[in-house]
Design a protein that fits this description.
Distance between the termini: 74 Å
Shape: elongated
Number of strands: 8
Strand order of the largest sheet: 5-4-6-7-8
Helix content: 40-55%
Structural class: alpha/beta
Number of helices: 12
Strand content: 5-15%
């Protein structure tokens, strides 16, 4: 007996219309994948769905404990733009705030897709399609991070030459914006000369954040940090993050003040700002 069911078979087991099951899948509420152009639902996933929702399968099924990142990953690998956004909508209906959409849904989905590409389970084309779709999702989510009121300062965000990943920069920029900062996102693969020119033009600055996921870009990252040191006040913290950085000691070995991730970047910038104010008193 196959471990997978068609949507029609799943609908019969749930006692609902085929289109109802299809809606569950598109909203990310019921895990499924495409095989030869046909949706397949795992028997275990269907049993879990039934267990979570009791005897009334047509009831609302959004819950915070759903593996939303897996739902999103499936839609991304299928190249399903509309379905990807519906997963995000479903997660927010379940109570996840925009930051959690980034940290608990998009980031782990991207990490899983990256591992599958490195291990040869998917091709570079599939990985690129997923990245493009995530870029669109971030574009739609970005305005939800807007925060009214006085700004705390300006933060420049960038990645060095050789680092072509920019999605992490976009998410960090949104989180910093929600934290009350004006953010200048210079993007990825930025020549050090252009980076230094922008730092000169944007002063006074509160912090400089540099992201690097590609280990081969570490030396370019070192040069970028050195350029920041030559350009901005020593009281302006240079914060380093990304998968190629292993904690504060590694960040400091490259010349930065500290490391940070999506969870800690606002606090890291705030700590630097507070230290700067104490020095100026």
């Amino acid at each position: 007996m196959s471990d997978f069911l068609t949507l029609q078979q799943a609908a019969e087991r749930l006692g609902v219309h085929y289109m109802t099951v299809y809606r569950y899948v598109r909203l990310g509420q019921l895990n499924a994948h495409k095989e030869g152009g046909t949706w397949r639902v795992g028997r275990d996933d269907l049993e879990l769905f039934q267990h979570r929702n009791g005897s009334d399968s047509s009831a609302a099924v959004s819950r915070r404990n759903v593996a939303w990142h897996e739902r999103l990953e499936n839609r991304l690998l299928d190249g399903d733009a509309s379905g990807s956004w519906k997963v995000i909508e479903g997660a927010m209906m379940a109570g996840l705030v925009p930051f959690e959409i980034y940290s608990d849904v998009i980031v782990p989905a991207l990490a899983s897709i990256g591992r599958k590409w490195q291990e040869g389970e998917i091709g570079v084309g599939e990985e690129h399609v997923a990245a493009v779709l995530v870029g669109r999702l971030i574009g739609r989510l970005g305005p939800r991070f807007s925060r009214p009121g006085r700004r705390k300062g300006t933060v420049v965000v960038a990645a060095p030459s050789g680092e072509r990943h920019s999605l992490n920069l976009a998410m960090v920029s949104d989180v910093l914006q929600a934290g009350g900062y004006t953010v200048v996102d210079l993007g990825a693969d930025l020549p050090v000369e252009a980076f230094q020119a922008e730092l000169e033009r944007r002063q006074p600055l509160t912090a400089v954040c540099i992201g690097v996921l590609n280990a081969e870009a570490r030396e370019d990252c070192r040069r970028m940090i050195a350029a920041a040191r030559r350009t901005v006040s020593r009281s302006v913290p240079v914060i380093l993050g990304g998968g190629a950085i292993d904690g504060d000691n590694d960040a400091m070995s490259l010349g930065a003040d500290r490391s940070a991730d999506l969870h800690s970047v606002v606090d890291a910038v705030g700590a630097g700002r507070d230290e700067s104010q104490m020095v100026s008193v």
